[in-house]
């Protein structure tokens, strides 16, 4: 018995030392493209930590993974912040539609992180995605999409799951389908570049032929009853469906419509916008810390 307890104490000490020795990692490659890199900020812990998975915004055309991880790591949650191919990189490589490049990169980066769970002292079951604007859209796409793991793959990373424990996002686009978007907001004009087109009118004109792509890369199209808890955070004007807001690209109108669909599917959702009083969470970080440490 004494030998067993001594061996157990050594294992616990080794685990603690391993966790303490983990250092921040920057620009670690997870794929072949120069933008397939991530930063890792470990939280100190003697047990596997939850993870905040950050996807930056910028319309899938610009932006960088810079992230203030300390408020999260101080709560015992590790952080991964990723770069990914822009849509213009996808166009250069002949990716169709171009939006497949940033979204598939986000999925691959998530699988890569899970493959590092033992080495990085991470809890695979507690990963929550976050981001703003296009990064928010990417986060929701991961949250709702069926698992993209390939159990039969020779690549161990590809066998890892792409499912999330939760997502909390800021100013998210919830669909790339111009039909409902223009019904919700007559002045909506964002998203044509996702399909390699110049404006939303071109998407509308060719919507029927584009519909398979629209459905595959629109988060809202993948909502199902097994999806995780979602936090939706919007600024700007109080959302009024059918109006033309000053910033339709990031309007809470989209959050209102997505929240309706999530509630119809019995998915836990928190929606925060300027018209909401008695907010349980002031921001997406508070939501993630609460849900990932429960």
TrEMBL record:
Give residue ranges for domain BD-FAE-like: 40-242
Molecular functions per Gene Ontology: triacylglycerol lipase activity
From which residue to which does the signal peptide run? 1-19
UniProt keyword Nucleus, yes or no: no
Q: Which UniProt keywords apply?
A: Hydrolase, Signal
**Pfam families given in the database record:** BD-FAE
Q: Which Gene3D superfamilies match?
A: alpha/beta hydrolase (3.40.50.1820)
Q: Which SUPFAM superfamilies match?
A: alpha/beta-Hydrolases (SSF53474)
InterPro entries from the entry?
AB_hydrolase_fold, BD-FAE-like_dom, GDXG_lipolytic_enzyme
Q: Which family does it belong to?
A: Belongs to the 'GDXG' lipolytic enzyme family.
Q: What is this protein called?
A: Acetyl esterase
Q: What is the native source organism of this protein?
A: Blastopirellula retiformator
């Amino acid at each position: 018995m004494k030998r067993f307890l001594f061996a157990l104490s050594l294992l616990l000490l080794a685990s603690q030392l391993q966790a303490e020795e983990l250092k921040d990692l920057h620009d670690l490659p997870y794929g072949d493209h120069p933008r397939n890199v991530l930063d890792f900020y470990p939280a100190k812990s003697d047990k596997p930590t939850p993870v905040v998975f950050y996807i930056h915004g910028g319309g899938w055309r610009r932006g960088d993974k810079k992230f203030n991880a300390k408020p999260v790591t101080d709560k015992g949650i590790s952080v991964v912040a990723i770069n990914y191919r822009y849509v213009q990189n996808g166009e250069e490589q002949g990716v169709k539609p171009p939006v497949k490049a940033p979204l598939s990169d986000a999925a691959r980066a998530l699988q890569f992180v899970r493959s590092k769970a033992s080495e990085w002292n991470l809890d695979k079951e507690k990963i929550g995605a976050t981001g703003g604007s296009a990064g928010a859209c990417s986060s929701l796409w991961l949250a709702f999409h069926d698992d993209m793991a390939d159990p039969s793959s020779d690549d161990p990373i590809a066998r890892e799951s792409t499912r999330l424990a939760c997502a909390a996002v800021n100013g998210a686009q919830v669909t790339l389908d111009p039909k409902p978007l223009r019904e919700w907001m007559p002045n909506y004009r964002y998203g044509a570049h996702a399909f390699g087109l110049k404006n939303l009118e071109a998407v509308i004109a060719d919507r029927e032929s584009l519909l398979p792509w629209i459905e595959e890369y629109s988060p809202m199209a993948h909502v199902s009853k097994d999806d995780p808890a979602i936090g939706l955070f919007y600024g700007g004007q109080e959302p009024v469906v059918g109006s033309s807001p000053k910033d339709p690209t990031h309007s809470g109108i989209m959050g209102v419509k997505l929240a309706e669909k999530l509630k119809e599917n019995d998915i836990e959702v928190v929606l925060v916008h300027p018209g909401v009083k008695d907010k349980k969470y002031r921001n997406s970080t508070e939501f993630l810390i609460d849900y990932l440490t429960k």
